[in-house]
Amino acid sequence: MTKQLGILLFDGVEDLDATGPWEVLAYWTRTWPQDGYAVSTFSATGQPVTCAKGLRILPDHSYADSPPWDVLLHPGGRGTRPMLTDQAHLDWVREQRAAVPLMTSVCTGSLVFAAAGLLKGRPATTHWASLDRLAELDPSIEVRAEDRFTDDGDVITSAGVSAGIDMALHLVVRLAGADRAREVRRSIQYDPLPPI
Fold it and tell me: Which residues form the DJ-1/PfpI domain (predicted)?
């Protein structure tokens, strides 16, 4: 039975928060389907979403027709700001926590997890500009300012934007092993050597 990885999309999602992990996970699952995983995207309605920088994406699923997720990834971006007080969305996140074995976030997606109570007493990180907000939302969180990602077993959070690629490669390590993750990293030529 193929296990399902789901990437949540919404208006105002930070483009690379979603597409960075998508590149890693889609390359892995499509190149090595024998590993037993598939990745797809979904949104509340299944209608196209407009990302923070204007990229438009058509999700694969809506909430209603999504498969049961084995891993759920909640990206960040400007679209997460209203989610912090949207009780319907926070209730949905809590419902997912009860059903999904592994919840992950990129960037300010962790703020949503914090607002929903998922990070109580856990280590977590987020975009550097939102670290104080993470601590304000739940003072019991062990905020990891220097970490690219934190893995606390059934919840993984990552820092901002490009850190989602590192987190997704870590997911491949967890789900398919370090050798497979190295193959994926080499294949997508993710070898960061910033020019500045």
Answer: 7-172
CATH domain 3-187 topology: Rossmann fold (3.40.50)
Summarize pLDDT for 72-88 with one digit per residue, the tens.
999 999 999 999 999 99
Domain coordinates of the chain in residue numbers?
3-187
Q: What is the pTM of this model?
A: 0.97
- Around Cβ 117, how many Cβ atoms within 10 Å? 13
Residues in the chain: 196
d(C-alpha 78, C-alpha 52), whole Å: 7
The active-site residue, picked from 100, 107, 118, 137, is 107
Active site residue 51: no
